[in-house]
Design goal:
heterodimer, A: 269 residues, alpha/beta, 6-stranded parallel beta sheet, 51% helix, elongated, B: 217 residues, 3 domains, 7 helices
Chain lengths: 269, 217
């Protein structure tokens, strides 16, 4: 019995690898009922009129791309479908490539043009200082967009002077930068804010949801899949639900089996 | 020297700390303009901080190679990777060797086909270690560990679609764990951390906390 507790961890790794790959090879659909926190983000964007402005801050890098990029895609589908102007930016130097690709690709699907229907402002160093500067004047924080075009007079920014004029902001993040968006952005300049975060960060959002500092949040791949369901555009996140479910069940089985052996062998260390 | 290294920074910290704390509560135009200028200065300083970060990284890896510290060979790869990325990024707008409409510039290619898969791979390895750790160490040794274990199983199942398929009550229970005990604990931690941040800020402004000035002379 005790030998089972000392099982080679490579066997466990193979089991996890199989739990991921088999559901990907033999795809089966799983229902993804949207939770209230994702629904409230969706409802907020859905309630906006055409030509409203949604700011998306892509504050993540390739390491968390698998969880956050599907969220970005789902949000962009929703905004472009509703002819909402998108203002993209990032406070992560490695976030520019992912953010630009997402906006450009999804924008192309809907025939949207840079500078007219959306603007990608690129990266600026300074995190909370950038947020505060944007709160005072968006054009001093970003004098040019990612492609070097002057932001003053840009059609996509028509009617926007500072963060106060943003109709909704979404922070897609894999770090604590969402707190800077709440403290220095939402609270100071009074705009509605939603967050898309990695699954491991999900529990941190609940105090801010209860205090209405966040309108909602998407947590991990499941959050992205829920948003895809609401938008009606099932993509990578929805496809990832089957392997994620199988791996979660496998980990639960590991825990239960490990404990069974632990008790059966007389609770030895 | 001590005056420039310690006294001047402390005076700047005091003046700016007090000024910006008052600025927050003054909605006058002059106050808004001050914030605009100060935040722009801050952004410029942050830009220089990135150079210092890069210098520090290169310096550390150069020393590893120089003193043949265990694993120094990896440092060569750091210089190799950083060198290629920097040169391809700076030279001719990222078009070092090629630029076609399909794959973009060479800099784009490095990002898409080296940095993105490498970053995602490193992060995904976590799942394997977590599964192994769950099997080996997650034990119901006492009352507290048992509560943690049961909560973990409920949340793990409640956060994926399969939880709903097993029982409609699992996601409800998972949501309750998140919105009641989790929220209470997170808020307590948040308040504690925030009070700590305020206390440290006051200590820095009034020159009681000097660790940020660094050691040496």
């Amino acid at each position: 019995m005790e030998k089972l507790l000392k099982i080679d961890r490579r066997i466990l790794f193979v089991l996890v690898a199989l739990a991921v790959t088999i559901p990907l090879l033999f795809r089966f659909k799983m229902p993804v009922p949207p939770t209230r926190h994702v629904k409230s983000m969706y409802n907020k964007i859905d309630s906006l009129s055409e030509d409203s402005h949604v700011l998306i801050s892509f504050d993540y890098d390739p390491s968390s791309k698998e969880e956050l990029q599907p969220m970005a895609h789902a949000l962009l589908h929703h905004c472009f479908k509703k002819n909402i102007k998108v203002i993209g930016m990032t406070l992560y130097p490695a976030g520019t490539g992912l953010a630009e690709k997402a906006i450009k690709e999804i924008g192309k699907e809907y025939g949207k043009k840079s500078g007219k229907d959306y603007v990608f402002l690129g990266f600026k160093a300074g995190s909370s200082l950038v947020i505060m500067n944007m709160g005072e004047d968006i054009y001093t924080a970003f004098q040019e967009d990612f492609y070097g075009k002057k932001t003053v007079g840009m059609q996509a920014l028509k009617g926007v002077r500072s963060l106060r004029d943003i109709d909704y902001a979404v922070n897609l993040t894999a770090s604590g930068i969402y707190e800077a968006w709440i403290v220095y952005g939402k609270e100071k300049y009074n705009f509605d804010l939603g967050v898309g975060c990695t699954a491991v960060m999900g529990p941190e959002m609940y105090p801010f949801i209860q205090s209405s500092q966040l309108t909602g949040f998407m947590g991990g791949l499941k959050g992205a899949a829920e948003y895809e369901t609401l938008v009606g555009h099932k993509d990578r996140a929805s496809a990832g639900m089957a392997p994620q479910s199988v791996v979660h069940v496998l980990v639960v089985c590991f825990i239960l089996f490990g404990n069974f052996i632990y008790f059966a062998s007389g609770r030895k260390k | 020297m001590n005056f420039l290294k310690r006294t001047v920074p402390m005076i700047i910290a005091f003046v700016m700390g007090v000024l910006m704390a008052f600025q927050y509560y003054v909605p006058h135009e002059a106050s808004q303009n001050l914030l605009k200028v100060v935040t722009r200065w801050g952004m410029i300083i942050s830009g220089f901080a990135m150079f210092i970060g890069a210098y520090s990284l290169f310096h550390m890896h150069w020393n590893r190679i120089k003193h043949k510290v265990s694993g120094w060979g990896y440092s060569i790869f750091m210089f190799f990777g950083a060198g290629i990325a920097i040169i391809s990024g700076l030279y001719n707008g990222g078009e070092l060797f090629w630029n076609d409409k399909q794959s973009g510039t060479m800099f784009d290619w490095i990002f898409d086909y080296v940095q993105v898969p490498a970053g995602a791979t490193i992060f995904s390895i976590l799942a394997f270690f977590m599964a192994s750790a769950a099997y080996r160490t997650f034990r119901a040794r006492n009352k507290e560990a048992t509560i943690l274990l049961i909560s973990a199983i409920i949340v793990m199942l409640g956060r994926v679609p399969v939880g709903t398929m097993i029982s409609q009550y699992i996601p409800i229970a998972a949501d309750w764990i998140m919105t009641v005990p989790n929220l209470a604990a997170k808020r307590a931690i948040l308040i504690g951390v925030s009070i700590g941040v305020i206390a440290t800020s006051i200590k820095i402004i009034f020159g009681i906390e000097k660790a940020y000035l660094g050691g040496g002379d």
